[in-house]
Write a structure and sequence with these properties.
The complex is a heterodimer of chains A (567) and B (196). A two-stranded antiparallel ribbon of chain A has the order 1-2. Chain A is globular and about 75 Å long. In chain A, strand 1 and strand 2 form a beta hairpin. Chain A is built from 18 helices and four strands. Chain A starts with a helix and ends with a helix. Chain B folds into two domains: 40 residues; 151 residues, no CATH class. Chain B is mostly helical and 196 residues long. Chain B starts with a helix and ends in a 5-residue tail after the last helix. In chain B, the strands form two sheets. In chain B, strands 3-5-4 form a three-stranded antiparallel β-sheet. A two-stranded antiparallel ribbon of chain B has the order 1-2. Chain B is 46% helix and 9% strand. Classes of the chains: A mainly alpha (567), B mainly alpha (196). At the A-B interface, helix 1, helix 2, helix 3, helix 5 and helix 6 of A face helix 1, strand 2, helix 3, strand 3 and helix 6 of B.
């Protein structure tokens, strides 16, 4: 246990240590200031703008910014969808995979464009190397850059005074890709190869095992995709087993590196926020709330997994009993840690099968997604989600003391509160409606992989993962059906753009405001009290919305299991 | 508005060239130069024949080999169909499967009824390709393997301990573990039965 705690502490330490300078660097990148990479990257940047017809000096209103974002994601969706439909006739397909079924292709395209990376297919038996590289890897970059662009636009809205513009979407996306995502991915992918992650374009190899049987060893450009899968908080595995596959995550050190990669950019953006607003304490307060919620979640999953499965202990299985769906090289500690990291951040990569987690161990990841993916959260989306909750918190406090709420010197009025409420309600309603429809229709029920309350957990998890743009799954649910392909695709789309549009609306309306001077009656948002209030608001909203559903799924199963009954 | 649409399509295509072709091909080239063995799948050869990957577990059923974990990948350790069982903790079918595996482990290794059984030997891994078992799971099998090969238990035990991996860099990972394929290759070498 001491060793597990040490590893957790080392991970968080390494993340914070890197996030601080990285966050300041990202502030320079998005403010268009000089960085050490400029001599190399400025020519590439100009070349991209020339080829795409972008005028980098032009600033946009929030509506133009939102429209550009939607067109960009729409074009990405169309390209990725079509690429899958024709991959059978294209090169770089050493296993000669046929084209992907239309509903799977549509689900996958929505999934990767929305930074979800829900996968209703098995990578090693479906996608050609070309699709993995020029389709899925590309959206791993672009969806991450889109998320970062939105939060930067929101920060500009908070900072600017009586401004009509919130930045240039094309410039934000391009600079994020060139200055942040590509250099980091290059370094991380080579570090992963050193640990054993494969990177080649060869066909699968068939070997004769020691017992004389044939075994297929899959191949492919895995490391380059693995790096951005983590850094961009995407989570879509090259292989079906995702980061549990030894070719995606071969050693305990590669596992630490992958968890670091998931956390580092969402954490760095909080420092970027502090830097760009000129109020580092405001960033620290948000970081504090995130760390508090993260620690609570980690304690929940880790303790539940360590306590294990009493039904197995009764049969004479030695502790640790909860090894179903886990890898020996990670053990309980690195598996529980990964599960919490990947769902606190809306990454969705898995190094163990969440469907086989203990009931409470699996409830925590589900809850983290239901809370809106704001505990670090996805790149960009985590911080803008948390800032929405910060607006809710100052609004609630304002109600109690009877004053107009303010945040960072901007008055928060009816329009902002309405949009913030929308950004919280839309994903929550999507999760509950989707799950409710699925458990009363034959098409929804026929996919269940486990009986009893665990079946409900599978459906709840699927929609929480889709609407939260996480992408991990209780994989026993057969998601490769027409019904789930379309239903989850819809949930992912609403969960992404149903939040981005209100957030950009808030950015536009805040940018137009005149800052108000801080007075004696101003409620301070740079104190540890605000950290606690913020964390409490996140928990309260989530708990009130989802407690009844969770009580019928994981909570009932937990009680059954400890009473010694099977489902 | 027509302008935005046109820019959107063009920038997706330009960024595809950069992030979807240039970047992965650059990584492929660098990986081949810097870490050729790892990039190619950590393949292990014996007598000039590739017998597997050091990272991918194999199915072992013969009593003279150490056995790996139960696998839900295809018919077991199918490298083209990775994955776990996705069985929930209270699923009756899963509980029955574990009960059967416990009986089998006890029977194969001559353990008395009620003897404790290491958990990794009776639970399916996440990938279905787990190359490792815990030291405890290897130790349970030592008498069986030694008897099947006509070797002294002490000699097999010594070999197992030579293969134990502790925490990586002294810090990272879970319990001490053993790579089953590498251990079995060494066992064959010790028995002088290479390539049988």
């Amino acid at each position: 246990m001491a060793s597990d705690l040490l590893q957790m502490a080392l991970l968080i330490g390494a993340v914070l240590l890197a996030a601080w300078p990285l966050g300041r660097y990202m502030a320079r990148v998005f403010e268009g200031q000089r960085t050490f990479l400029d001599p190399l990257l400025r020519p590439v940047e100009r070349w991209i703008y020339r080829l795409s017809g972008v005028d980098e000096s032009r600033e946009m209103s929030w509506k133009t910014y939102a429209a550009s974002l939607l067109w960009f994601n729409g074009a990405g969706l169309a390209v990725l969808f079509l690429l899958q439909l024709v991959q059978g006739w294209l090169p770089l397909n050493p296993q000669h995979f046929p084209s992907v079924r239309w509903d799977t292709a549509l689900n996958t395209a929505v999934s990767f464009v929305t930074n979800t990376n829900w996968q209703s297919y098995a990578g090693e038996s479906t996608m050609s190397d070309l699709t993995q590289m020029a389709g899925l890897t590309v959206q791993n970059f672009l969806s991450a850059a889109t998320g970062a662009a939105v939060v930067i636009a929101l920060i500009r809205g908070l900072v600017r005074r009586q401004a009509a513009a919130i930045g240039n979407f094309w410039v934000d996306v391009t600079r994020c890709t060139l200055w942040v995502l590509l250099p980091l991915s290059l370094v991380v992918s080579l570090a992963l190869v050193s640990q054993g992650v494969i990177q080649n374009l060869g066909p699968y190899v068939t070997v004769r095992t020691l017992e004389g049987a044939g075994q297929t060893i899959p191949m492919g450009p895995v490391a380059s995709q693995e790096a951005i899968k983590m850094l961009g908080t995407n989570g879509g595995g090259f292989f079906n087993a995702n980061s549990a596959h030894p070719f995606e995550n071969p050693t305990p050190v590669s596992n630490m590196l992958e968890m670091w990669s998931i956390l580092v950019l969402p954490a760095a953006l909080v420092f970027t926020f502090g830097r760009m607003t000129g109020k580092p304490r405001q960033g620290a307060v948000i970081l504090g709330a995130m760390l508090l919620l993260f620690a609570l979640a980690l304690a929940g999953t880790y303790l539940s997994e360590r306590a294990g499965n009493p039904l197995l202990a009764q049969m004479g299985v030695q502790a640790p009993t909860a090894m179903e769906g886990k890898e020996v090289r990670f053990g309980i500690g690195q598996s529980a840690l990964f599960s919490v990291v990947t769902t606190a951040v809306s990454c969705g990569a898995v190094n163990n099968m969440h469907d086989s987690l203990t009931p409470l161990g699996g409830m925590v990841p589900m809850l983290l997604m239901m809370l809106g993916e704001v505990v670090f959260g996805g790149i960009g989306s985590g911080l803008y989600g948390m800032l929405v909750f910060a607006l809710m918190t100052v609004f609630l406090v304002g109600l109690m003391v009877g004053r107009t709420p303010e945040y960072l010197g901007k008055k928060i009025e009816a329009r902002e509160v309405k949009l913030a409420t929308l950004a919280v309600i839309v994903p929550a309603a999507t999760i509950l409606t989707g799950a409710a429809v699925s458990v009363v229709t034959p098409a929804g029920l026929s996919s269940l992989g486990n009986p009893g309350p665990h079946g409900l957990s599978e459906v709840l998890y699927a929609f929480a993962s889709g609407a939260g743009n996480n992408g991990s799954a209780f994989g026993g649910l057969n998601a490769g059906t027409l019904y789930y392909n379309l239903a989850i695709a819809l949930a992912m789309w609403i969960g992404r753009f149903g939040v981005i549009l209100p957030v950009l609306g808030i950015a536009g309306s805040l940018a137009a405001k005149k800052p108000v001077p801080e007075g004696p009656g101003t409620f301070r948002t740079d104190t540890s009290l605000f950290s606690l209030l913020l964390a409490a608001t996140v928990l309260l909203v989530g708990a009130l919305t989802f407690f009844p559903a969770l009580a019928l799924g994981p909570v009932v199963e937990h009680i059954m299991m400890w009473l010694g009954t099977a489902a | 508005m027509a302008r935005s649409q046109w820019i959107a399509v063009r920038s997706v295509l330009v960024l595809t060239l950069l992030t979807g072709l240039a970047y992965p091909l650059l990584v492929t080239g660098l990986a081949r130069v810097l870490f050729p063995w790892q990039a190619g799948g950590s393949l292990i050869e014996r007598n000039g024949q590739v017998v597997g990957s050091a990272l991918i577990g194999q199915k072992f059923q013969d009593p003279k080999y150490f056995h790996g974990r139960p696998s839900a990948a295809g018919d077991g350790y199918d490298g083209a169909a990775s994955g776990g069982s996705n069985a929930g903790p209270t699923n009756p079918e899963f509980l029955n499967a574990v009960r059967q595996r416990i009986d089998e482990v006890r029977r194969e290794n001559g353990l008395p009824a009620g003897a404790p059984v290491p958990s990794d030997l009776v639970t399916a891994s996440a990938s279905g390709l787990d190359p490792d078992i815990t030291l405890a799971a290897a130790e349970v099998q030592i008498p069986r393997v030694a008897a099947a090969r006509g070797l002294a238990e002490a000699a097999v035990r010594e070999l197992v301990h030579k293969h134990v991996r502790g925490r990586q860099w002294g810090l990272f990972g879970g319990e001490p573990r053993v790579n089953v394929l590498e251990l079995n290759l060494d066992l064959d070498r010790m028995s002088g039965r290479e390539g049988v």
